[in-house]
Amino acid sequence: MKITGAQAIIKALEYENTDVIFGYPGAAICPFYDALVDSGIKHILTRNEQGAAHAASGYARVTGKTGVCVSTSGPGATNLITGIATAYMDSIPMVAITGQVSSELIGRDVFQEADITGATAPFCKHSYLVKNEKDLPRIIKEAFYIASTGRPGPVVIDIPVDIQTREFEFNYPKNIDIKGYKPTYKGHSLQIKKVAEAVSKAKRPLICAGGGIIRANASKELLDYANKCSIPVTTTLMGLGAIPYHHKLNLGMLGSHGVYAANYAVHNADLLIIMGARVGDRAMGSPSQIENKASIIHIDIDPAEIGKNIKVSIPVVGDVKSILSELIEVSQKGNVEEWNVLINEAKEKNSIKTNYEDKAKFVSPKYALSVLTKLIDEKTVVTTEVGQNQIWTANYLGVRKAGTFITSGGMGTMGYGLPAAVGAKIGALESRVIAIAGDGSFQMSMNELGTIKQNKLGIKIIVFNNHRLGMVREMQKVKYCSRYSGVFLDENPDFIKLFEAYGFTGKTIDSNSQVEEALKEMLSDDKTCLLEIIVDPEESTL
Amino acid sequence: MGKHILSVLVENHAGVLSRVAGLFSRRGFNIDSLAVGVTENPEISRITIVVDGDDYIVEQVGKQLNKLVDVIKIKQLEKEESVSRELVLIKVEANANTRSEIIQIVEIFRANIVDVSKNTLTIEISGGANKVTALEDMLKQFGIKEIVRTGTIAIERGNNYTKVNNNDEE
């Protein structure tokens, strides 16, 4: 039977087990939205296309499935760009479907035309401009395959409106053969042997676990391996949750915004085992110093990451989960007792303080987050925005389980957290979802409160309000002689009233003594609400 | 630093060239030349790229190109084990006094005259970079009006060849 291109897209999505999509309609994607009426796929209307992309990302991160977002051509598609780039930097599996003007009009600058495959080329894993409706099944199958395999990432499919209306005989392909795309999963056995040998000889080994551990679902293997060989573990921002925060071998986050023990370990290790991490500048600011002191093992599914930012002695390309399983079999514990004593001493000196200052009209965000840690269960999903709120949460909220901490690590996208929480909640309805924001970043995506209301989602929102763009202000304080420029948010709205306008409730606290009670109250039901926490503008990130 | 020739097999689709070229610009790699043409298999094109850079750069170029889904295979061609050629058209000023001297030079280089006018001669030369540069030097004195180059293309010597599914040798 012949069906239209639009119906074919829906059918293909069903073949790919897509049950929810995030999107925003428009003229060039209308045939698709028309076909959507007759399908069982749930559509979540966000309040901006960027929110749809971030929500698809949040959904992908809690479910492990490929997130799908949809927009129309032109401004709809360009609004997706930040979301696509954010997903690309954090290796999140996503398929972005954009409408395009009619095939015969492409290139004539007609209404709402934008070259979205061209615009997204630098930060999507692959993209397609569909030129023939008969290619749709193959292209969609390939797109899901490329997005979710190897190193995951976003794939863009741009579909002209006339292609969506043309009829053809639909056949969903069974197999995929892409000549130029053959990801490596199995690690080279000789390289794995070399790793085992280096680890058994090392006196001061250290594992640096990145987001790859979480994407590969390899937390259990990481723990088994670290336990077997008594190797301490530090994580990147994206790797938080790869090892439970309270585990004896966990050192916390490394890097410029990380903790003392982690950075002590990085700079004193004689063997650094990097797993599923890309040696980003925020994690390792001076890789040349590190490579001079330690041998480097780098395990990654993306061969292009190996040797890009740090010189590697033993590279292993492949899936970190299967490589770790093999390593557990062949590895012997080295002579690391002395090292673990040093590590434990460093942990005691950790810059994370347990005493917080009580101030007259302010709450310590670090204290609030440490209280929150005690009140939530391991399934609770926490999203953050970007700025001080992100680093406070990374360092002071204990993440227990992989995939429960959702943040824009690579791109550092403000406005990510709230729509990501929408996607996360829809992906894990049984889990509590908490969105943590600053007053600046919250205002970048607060329109998504409408999405939350419409879909009756219960999301707990914490806004650390210091009436500033705190992280930029802090940078101006330290590096620009306190010449503050463009960082004041003195005319913030009344956030409580704003929440009330959507039918939600809110509460403001401004002293440490109110924290525990307010958080308990917030967590006493499943309704969306705001907890506004007033923070001293002088409060530092670290 | 030095020149490296990369022979890159890609899907013969629209947009592939812009992906490859875009990758070079956004990662800050320098291209000396880039030549594209379809291969014996019409579904596959070959891009021959001359890159200027050290070993680190060349390794990165290769790895980043490999990440592009449309890139099927990359081979770095070593100078001694490959033949490289470039086709160049040179329009040079020529009058009754200089014409015969220019023709003599062209003959020495085994180049061809492909067009002639009252005031100009157009010369076609193909060869390695050194030969082309040498001819260019010899012609400078007469006044070069315009040079058009195709960019280097290269092929492996002997039994080796770069194909989609082979292992470089037969």
Ordered list of secondary-structure elements with their pairings:
The complex is a heterodimer of chains A (about 550) and B (about 170).
Chain A: E1 2-4, H1 5-15, E2 20-23, H2 30-36, E3 42-45, H3 49-63, E4 67-71, H4 75-89, E5 94-100, H5 116-120, E6 126-129, H6 136-148, E7 154-160, H7 161-165, E8 167-169, H8 189-201, E9 205-209, H9 211-215, H10 219-229, E10 233-235, E11 250-253, H11 260-268, E12 271-275, H12 287-293, E13 295-300, E14 314-317, H13 320-330, H14 337-348, H15 365-375, E15 381-384, H16 388-396, E16 405-406, H17 417-427, E17 433-438, H18 439-445, H19 449-454, E18 459-465, H20 470-479, H21 495-501, E19 505-509, H22 512-522, E20 529-534
Parallel strand pairs in A: 2-3, 2-4, 4-5, 5-7, 6-7, 9-10, 9-12, 10-11, 12-13, 13-14, 15-16, 15-17, 17-18, 18-20, 19-20
Antiparallel strand pairs in A: 1-8
Helix pairs in contact in A: 1-2, 1-6, 3-4, 3-17, 8-13, 10-13, 11-14, 15-16, 15-22
Chain B: E1 3-11, H1 16-27, E2 30-38, E3 44-52, H2 55-67, E4 71-77, E5 82-93, H3 99-108, E6 112-116, E7 120-127, H4 129-140, E8 144-149, E9 153-156
Antiparallel strand pairs in B: 1-3, 1-4, 2-3, 5-7, 5-8, 5-9, 6-7
